[in-house]
Amino acid sequence: MENLTNKELEAELSFKKKNVFEEADEKELSAIFDYAEGYKSFLDAAKTEREAVKEGILLAEKNGYTQYKLGEALSVGDKKYYNNRGKSLYLFKIGKEDIGENGIRIIAAHIDSPRIDLKQNPLYEDSGMGFLKTHYYGGIKKYQWTAIPLALHGVVILADGSSVEIKVGENENDPVFYINDLLPHLAADQMQQPMSKAISGESLNILVGGLPVSDKDVENKIKFGVLRILNDKYGIKEGDFISAEISAVPVFKARDIGFDRALVGAYGHDDRVCAYPAMTALFDTESDAHTTLVILADKEEIGSEGNTGMQCRLLSDIIQEIATALGKNPVLVRSNSKCLSADVNAAYDPNYGEAYEKRNSAMLSCGATMSKYTGSRGKSGTSDASAEFVGYIRNLFDNAGVIWQTSELGKVDHGGGGTVAMYIANLNIDTVDIGVPVISMHAPYEVVSKADLYSTYKAFCAFCK
Ligand code: MN
Ligand code: MN
Q1: N or C: which end of the chain has fewer CB within 10 A?
Q2: Model confidence pLDDT, tens digit, residues 266-302
Q3: CA–CA distances in Å: residue 41 to residues 89, 167, 457
Q4: Ligand 1 center to residue 67 CA distance, Å?
Q5: Which is nearest to 222 in space by CA: 238, 208, 233?
Q6: CATH (residue range 13-113+267-464)
Q7: Distance (Å) from CA 301 to ligand 1 centroid
Q8: What is the 417 CA–ligand 2 centroid distance (Å)?
């Protein structure tokens, strides 16, 4: 470095983020744009965790994966998927490498997204309108969910135990649903409220009808009309809502954003924008050396609890099953495994710059973003990956030519957030967060960069390879 000018030396010594689009040649650019098309199709087909599992299985089967049942024998070369109750999915391929020594390479993303769930006794009518009562799912800004078209997706278990699927609002000719807001003319009081209070949880009632049946003897004419339609179409009675999971999600389809089409707007990027690259990286990498596992988890948005969330011991069980089938010690397998917790992060937004610490925020189009730690208030609630593991991943990505960046979520003490990383790290597995930066995270329509999506895919390919 002796012959360098100070300017050259400065460039050599300093760290600077790179814009993925700027660095890409023509071939890479078209790869970036092509890849986003497959992702948009996946988004439109998979708006709930159940639908994402179904789509995941379709893609897996196309790529030679077959269904795995716990307890089944496994051998090198096997490509399997485990469907956990239709709500979370484990995809794995068994490599040649000794997993007792090298462990399993794990990528864990989640496929549940913030939404509005129906209550168990939801249907009523009031003042000429039929409504469904709801309880929102995940961290939403409630005002964003009013006055937009919504679709209903879900499953109903009928009294006889049979199951009926519901999906209304996605087809052009379907009716859609709606949550009312107050007109500005009468909103003087509402507009004085803090945003967190302006729309209450109990006012998130979904408008589902307005046509009274013409029979004087019927007490609830609109409600009865809706029930009759539901019964004709699905065989549903009011009591069946008790054993149902029905969610309202935005009807919007994934669309390019901007004149130059660099960005994608969609509902539920968080976290399908990591789930899709995780799956496709697993399918697209030819290497038969590593044993690789991709997890599409449920319940991340509400704390990862339950038997479809990442706090469930299923991951530990599956590792144990794989280890036992290959004659290895599961304790050693876990201690030598590596995991990318694949979840989104907040992209720096100059319109709300005061919420971010710019030097340590994810910048749009600067690639997959790694977060050594998440959590809040003094790193509370994070597994905080070791410098050694971050160093390992850094080398892996750099050697594979991946443009990536690091970030933490917003300013210190301004909030924060968690992912599934800590639950996996708690199993004695080296884990670090990496994923796609998102604008307007948890809004009904979120934005990501096609460059970051593709960079994340490349990063996951490097990890699987
Ligand atoms: Mn997430
Ligand atoms: Mn989230």
Answers
A1: N
A2: 999 999 999 999 999 999 998 889 999 999 999 999 9
A3: 19, 17, 16
A4: 27
A5: 208
A6: 3.40.630.10
A7: 7
A8: 8
